[in-house]
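re: ur question from yesterday

yeah so i grabbed the chain u mentioned. its 253 aa long if i counted rite. heres the sequnce exactly as i have it in my notes:
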Amino acid sequence: MPNEARYALLYSDYESAPILRLPFEKFSIITVGLPLFAFIFCIIYSVIFHFETATYTHCQVFNVLPSISAAIGNFSPQRQVWQMAIVLHAVPRFSIAFVYLQHHQNVLYQNDQWMGAVACVLNVVENISLIILSFWTSSQHYPVHEKAFITFILMSEFYMILIYILQRRCKKRHKESLKWKKRLLITNISSILVATYCFLRHNSYCEPYVYSGFALAEYTVVLTNMAFHMTAYLDFKNKDLVVYKYGVALTER
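ran it thru and got these structure tokens back, copy pasting raw so excuse formatting
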């Protein structure tokens, strides 16, 4: 074999050699576990060590729970813990978005594949807006934080609705994953409605504990969002995530 051909073959093997192979179940647990741990830590730490300032609002009425913005953005070390978790989980989140894109190209009928591409864009924009609202906090950069938060909520809702629709239109349905997606989507939307009601009522009437109701509903929105993304565990069970030099792919175990 000529030297040029031999080197070309070796280079091709090098380019296609996997850098990392990880069971998708572990990958999804790590990806969701990072922001979940940070979220729980920030809430508990804020309640224990910054209770009065974390639960304070312009109404100056008693509340027992801080809002997420107050818990993750207004104090140290909560802010740093949350930001570190978001940074560490960002690349895996982007990877999962593109894994789903590849998956939808295989399991959707051709006429529906464009919706898989739209879902990928929504997922990527959701993740970018989460990064922005985490680093541009409400206390220091409120206009940017507000726009990023609204974008995050809208993109996450559109994404969850579209993914649920796509799962129903697949050539072969994953019944367990579809069941959990439906439950989490309904809970998430209901929690947004409750949070909106409590927020408006608090600003209108300044009643005790109403803002705590808003905070609790807000927690539920975030937790159901995380759990919805965790259903990827079911969608890609018994598969390995393989990282190559120029991309990622799923392979059968």
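noticed a couple things. DSSP finds ten helices and three strands in the chain. also Confidence is low (pLDDT under 50) at residues 3-14.
anyway ttyl
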